[in-house]
Specification:
This protein is an alpha/beta fold. It has 16 helices and 15 strands.
Length: 408
């Protein structure tokens, strides 16, 4: 296990905000010094475009950019760096997959199988794909606490023409790690492909795409200690070859002609039109290296430890309702009894605690857990049990009067 105090010293947001308790890493994570240095070095030492210049600084940054594919491939245990497509984030990656299903992979009456825990970025693109292909969307029955039941899932395939299964690796509200390997095996046995939203999973759980056998995995840099504006779509090469870009422009094509003929470059470059977020990719490179040096097994274990510690402390309080007591991945959804979630969050802000409130972009989840708004505390490698203890002491003394006063 890593030394959390040593880790905390790597993050300037912690050094510069000593009284802040930041429990909103599920929205975006803090960045270590080496990630910020990579971005600053780009802008101060070799600021140039990639794949376009025949001069030293452009050649240098192009190599580092391209080498990042190898880093990310190693990070998720993908054999072929060509399977790593850079995007602006999870949302862009998920949209690219759904766009191609809607246009190329689905036909009328085919079924998209998903769940009601999905983040908007992993459900809204499939609404559009359904519309374009005249396909159908069906939802996997979940347990009342939103946990996954493999038997119910497998029953969904009976007499259904399911072509794609769309699920998160980790629910962004409930924190459950879904049994993706088994989900994928069952889907493949029935001829369906699998697209996984890894936004909350990749930063916290050791991912092995070869073992999982998923067809697509999408994730963002900014949730894994990297900068915003960069992300990844991993896809099996033979599937990426069949897909078309959502955007066309410079650097994605080899040739184009007066008659409208376009000859695209090979995977992955054909998906990366225009000048990308170069600094974001370079920062993501350092973020992935940092996490691998900490050891993703250690990251996962520490996240589970903080989650269990917080839940156990909350269970001793009479004024708290917990919605995911079996959470596994650094996410705890709860409410203070009789207090609106946003009111509580505003009060906690006055007490120096930052956490999320609302529906967390998972607007269908209320159909499962029967709650529209929750508080969500999310942890990362720089959080501590001491911070949790301080927060629990605040929760103990929180009243509706204090919360109302804080917003007046």
């Amino acid at each position: 296990m890593f030394d959390v105090n040593k880790v905390r010293n790597d993050f300037p947001m912690i050094r510069n905000n000593k009284d802040l308790i930041y429990f909103d890493s599920g929205a975006t994570s803090f960045k270590p010094d080496r990630v910020i240095k990579a971005i600053m070095d780009y802008y101060t030492l070799y600021n140039s475009n990639i794949h376009r210049g025949d001069y030293d600084i452009s050649i240098s940054v192009s190599k580092t950019y391209d080498d990042t594919r190898k880093t990310i491939a190693r990070f998720i245990n993908a054999d072929d760096p060509r399977c790593i497509v850079f995007s602006s984030g999870s949302t862009a990656s998920l949209n690219l997959v759904a766009y191609n299903f809607g246009r190329n992979f689905l036909k009328e009456c085919d079924v998209i199988l998903t769940s009601q825990v999905e983040h908007a970025s992993n459900i809204l693109p499939w609404f559009k794909a359904r519309e374009e292909a005249k396909a159908n969307i069906e939802y996997i029955p979940l347990n009342p606490d939103a946990t996954f039941d493999l038997k119910k899932y497998e029953e969904c395939f009976k007499d259904k023409n399911i072509k794609v299964v769309v699920l998160p690796y980790v629910s962004n509200v409930m924190g459950y790690i879904y049994p993706i390997k088994e989900i994928t095996r069952i889907a493949h046995e029935h001829g369906a492909l699998v697209s996984i939203d890894g936004a909350q999973g990749v930063p916290h759980v050791k991912i092995d795409v070869k073992d999982l056998d998923v067809d697509f995995l999408s994730f963002s840099s900014h949730k894994m200690l990297g900068p915003a504006g960069a992300g990844v779509l991993y896809g099996k090469y033979e599937l990426l070859e069949k897909m078309e870009p959502m955007m066309y422009g410079g650097d994605s094509n080899a040739r184009f002609y007066n008659d409208g003929t376009i000859i695209l470059k090979n995977v992955p470059e054909k998906f990366e039109s225009g000048t990308p977020c170069i600094e974001g990719v370079l920062g993501m490179n350092e973020a992935a290296k940092y996490l691998m040096e900490l050891g993703m097994e250690n990251v996962e274990e520490y996240g589970r430890y903080l989650t269990r510690y917080f839940i156990d402390r909350l269970k001793n309080l009479d004024n708290v309702e917990i919605y995911n007591p079996e959470s596994e991945a650094g996410i705890v959804a709860f409410n203070l009894k009789g207090i609106f979630a946003q009111d509580a969050a505003s009060y906690f802000n006055k007490c120096g605690v930052a956490l999320r409130s609302g529906n967390h972009c998972a607007k269908l989840l209320q159909n499962v857990i029967n709650v529209t708004e929750t508080l969500r505390a999310t942890f990362n490698v720089y959080n501590t049990t001491e911070e949790i203890d301080r927060f629990v002491d605040i929760i103990k003394d929180t009243t509706i009067e204090k919360c109302v006063d804080s917003i007046l």
